[in-house]
Amino acid sequence: MTTLTVVLTHVDAATAGEQLRLLGGIAPGERFAVCHGGKRADFDALDLDAKAFVDDPTLRGAPRSFQSYHLTFAAVWDHWVRDDPSIDAVYVIEYDHLVLRGDYAQRLGAIAAQTGAGLLGKEASLRTGTNWEHYGRFRRDPALLAHLRRVSVREDPTLIYGTLGDGMWLSRAALADYVTVENHPPCYGELYVPTLVHHLGHRIVNLAEHSNLYDHVRWDPAYAPAEVRALHAAGATFAHPVKDLDVWREVAAHASPGTSVTSGDGYQV
Asked: How far apart are CA 164 and CA 206, in angstroms?
């Protein structure tokens, strides 16, 4: 299974470029691309071929409570996936999601194959009837419910799912179906993405039920350097959030030999 890993970032060009090169050193042979949702000047200065600009105000906190992934997914589909049938899946990570093992894509792909997942995620699960704050916000939202009734292939079009936005793995088929949907209602991406994917007929799978890959993926707080070193030494697969670039450099320096990676366009980065 071939997976395109997409880094969603807003940081300056030098940092974004170095992070992608470090990821390539940690996971030689994997395919990477960048979706930049920050300043246009930073995107323009980013010296990479596998990059796309995402002009989405919701990624810049306008407002954060309605952050969406529609334009990001459309960019990924249009730039890399649509015309490349070799890509079987897309893995969307945030700029502070540090890969600690080079075999992460194979491990995710194996779980997806075993479970028939259309979406894998951190605590990706049914949230209907729970006290999750975003379910509370949208459980009776008329625009969302009307939209789901229009597009759902499920018996119950009112079911609501949720997941952590960082580290979403989507099958090619799930992404293809997602980008065909038009006129998305205002909603929060961590609720909307798994909910829509479910209603389009794909299976939502919580990684925690099948592996320990996401034991060290969390919303907050950021991991300290000593914690990351310990996780790396123990064989953990990911750590998020990790904002100290020096630790990224340390992990890459102790990775398996190989410092280049093929991007989504087939270029070396």
From this structure: 10
Distance CA(73)–CA(51), nearest Å, equals 13
Domain boundaries, the chain: 3-253
Report residue 80 CA to chain centroid gap. Answer: 15
pTM above 0.70, yes or no: yes
**What's the token pair of residue 129?**
């009837």
**Measured distance between the N- and C-terminal CA atoms of the chain, rounded to whole angstroms:** 21
Q: What pLDDT sits at residue 29?
A: 87
Q: With respect to CATH, is domain 3-253 assigned 3.90.550?
A: yes
b/e per residue 157-196 (b: at least 16 CB within 10 A): eebbbbbbbbbbbbbbebbebbbeeeebeebbbbbbbbbb
pLDDT for residue 189 is more than 70: yes
Helix, strand or coil, per DSSP, at residue 155 = coil
Which tokens is 54 given? Answer: 């995402």
Which residues share a beta bridge with 117? 203
Per the DSSP assignment, residues forming a β-bridge with 268 are: 262
Q: Which residue has the tokens 């010296």?
A: 47
Among the ranges given (147-151, 202-206, 240-244, 259-263), the one the predictor scored with the smallest mean pLDDT = 259-263
